[in-house]
Amino acid sequence: MLTPLIAGNWKMHTGIRQGADLVLKLRELIKGVTDVEIVIAPPFTSIYHLSHLVADSPMQLAGQNLHWLKEGAQTGEVSGEMLADAGCRYVIIGHSERRAYFHETDELVNKKLAAALRAGLKPIICVGETLAEREAAQTVSVVSTQLRGALAGLPTGALKDITVAYEPIWAIGTGKTAAPQDAEDVHNALRELLFELLGSAAKPVRIIYGGSVKPDNIDSLMGQPNIDGALVGGAALKAEDFARIVKFKAAASEHKA
After folding, report:
1. Catalytic residue, candidates 37, 167, 184, 187
2. Choice among 95, 97, 129, 184 that is catalytic
């Protein structure tokens, strides 16, 4: 059994004080959680400050993006080494908003993945299809192409710490969520592809689901055998909601009792 990963992507929300307030609330709400790995991805400007607040808590920090170079004349960019130095252990790569609004390609995602590994960060690699691609029954083809492109040319031994996030684009921020069985089918296809590409190195790789994850759908999603966690957007900005998502195992135990 893989330890579930619940990651909260704050996107371009919260200043330093707001972020600190959110982390302090979360610290209390998730105190004692040990059976789930918890990651939050605040804006770059808050990472270093929050690194002190997440210390001695179940939370770890992630960057929302990175540049593929270690350093250089790249105004406005942040390298993996800078993220690690500020306190990050994870980084999100290839989010659909980066692909859509900043024209990131599979080749660019591949370069960023290599940079994250070089910096000692654990990458969360996002893949997902548009509504048009889904309606054309191209979902598995699209996400498989994205994943192959992300991993191309990288040594399999270096990829054991990656996480793959399946985020159907049509579900991000829309309130729509893939039906648990539909999400499971895509996760299963991605799992098979990972074993094809990585062999035994695929065993520890988690595949998490993203796309309007909320307290009222986390239990059904996590009940699927190939869903290893969640990448949470809007609900990650509400301490009580994110804590409920993190504590899905406890809720499941209560239902059984």
Report:
1. 167
2. 95
Q: Could you say which of 3.20.20.70, 3.40.50.2300, 3.40.50.150, 1.10.1040.10 is the CATH number of the domain covering 12-169+187-210? A: 3.20.20.70
146 pLDDT above the threshold of 80: yes
> Which tens digits make up the pLDDT trace of 3-34?
999 999 999 999 999 999 999 999 999 999 99
Rounded distance, CA 235 to CA 241, Å? 6
Closest CA to 111 of 58, 149, 81, 62: 149
List pLDDT tens digits, range 42-80: 999 999 999 999 999 999 999 999 999 999 999 999 999
List, for residues 102-141, the tens digit of each pLDDT value: 999 999 999 999 999 999 999 999 999 999 999 999 999 9
Q: Which of 37, 40, 29 is nearest to 4 (CA)?
A: 37
Catalytic residue list contains 95? yes
Q: Where are the beta strands (DSSP E) in 37-146?
A: 37-41, 59-63, 88-93, 122-127
What is the pTM (predicted TM-score) of this model? 0.95
Rounded Cα distance between 224 and 220, Å, is 7
C-alpha distances out from residue 223 to 31, 144, 212, 226, 248, Å: 23, 23, 17, 9, 10
Q: pLDDT value at position 173? A: 76
Distances (CA, A) of 166 to 51, 228, 249: 27, 11, 21
What does the DSSP 8-state code read for residue 156?
A: G
167 belongs to the catalytic site? yes
